[in-house]
Specification:
Blueprint lengths: L8 H7 L26 H14 L5 E7 H12 L4 E9 L11 H8 L3 H10 L1 H4 L17 H8 L6 H12 L4 H5 L1 H4 L6 E6 L8 H9 L7 E3 L6 H4 L1 H13 L1
Parallel strand pairs: 1-2, 2-3, 3-4
Helix pairs in contact: 1-13, 2-3
């Protein structure tokens, strides 16, 4: 949510000797351009991932997701188990925990028509992005987030009015019925699954890591990163990369 493929730059840089690494901008994010009335729900995003793999002639993937992307990965894996060689889930939308309680003020702000003003404010004063009332709680060290990274994340959402409206529709489409619907298939997923969870995440408590580990037959016990927060793939890239190497080698 709000971020894009740039979030995975440390994984792409460190793991490309082991795998072909592809980071995909979701619908209504980054450089992905869509039609004005196109479905942007998480299930539509999961279908989009399948279409990307088909277009690239890729049969199986080691799938990784974070935040909204983790919910999308669960849907993709549940609907396309034969395409998933391994699955890795970090703090993310799970079962009926979305939108998370701590994120509901943002959802309400978007519904009230304040998204464009909020995005412009965060870009005009990057300290707003890092503040406790915005994206600060998603980071262990929000003060260390670079201005240029904030620009890369947020600027595409203001490229034109439609891009802002696309993001409004993405937020408006939040509905946990999508993840509830695939629970039966998720409980049959045999793909080796690594669950890595930040313990200090205000959006996705650790209990959801254990829910996933219980639900997915192929899952290992969760790995908990003490003190980490939602966007730890950026902040604790070395720790995650080491875990991914071990997961894939296994």
């Amino acid at each position: 949510m709000l971020l894009n493929k740039h979030m995975w730059r440390h994984q792409i840089g460190a793991l490309s000797d082991l795998r072909r690494c592809i980071a995909v901008d979701l619908l209504a994010h980054g450089d992905t351009e869509i039609a004005a009335a196109q479905d942007v729900s998480v299930t539509a995003n999961a279908k989009m991932l399948k279409e990307v793999l088909d277009a690239l002639h890729i049969d199986q993937v080691d799938l990784i997701g974070n935040d909204s992307g983790g919910g999308i990965c669960q849907i993709f894996a549940a609907l396309n188990p034969d395409r998933v060689r391994t699955l890795t889930l970090t703090n993310c939308d799970t079962h009926d925990n979305w939108p998370p309680e701590a994120f509901k003020p943002f959802v309400e702000m978007v519904a009230a028509g304040g998204l464009s003003k909020t995005l412009n404010a965060m870009l005009g004063d990057k300290s707003i992005y890092r503040s406790p009332g915005a994206l600060g709680p998603a980071y262990e060290h929000p003060e260390a987030v670079r201005d240029e990274d904030i620009e890369i994340y947020l600027r595409p959402h203001l490229r034109n009015e439609q891009r802002t409206h696309d993001l409004e529709r993405f937020v408006g489409a939040f509905d946990n019925r999508h993840t509830l619907a695939i629970e039966p298939q998720l409980r049959q997923l045999k793909a080796p699954t690594l669950i890595v969870w930040a313990t200090d995440d205000v959006y996705f408590p650790v209990k959801w890591a254990h829910w996933l580990a219980e639900a997915i037959p192929g899952a290992k016990p969760p790995v908990e990163l003490s003190g980490a927060r939602l966007f730890f793939p950026e902040e604790r890239a070395d720790a995650l990369n080491q875990l991914l190497r071990g997961h894939w080698a296994g």
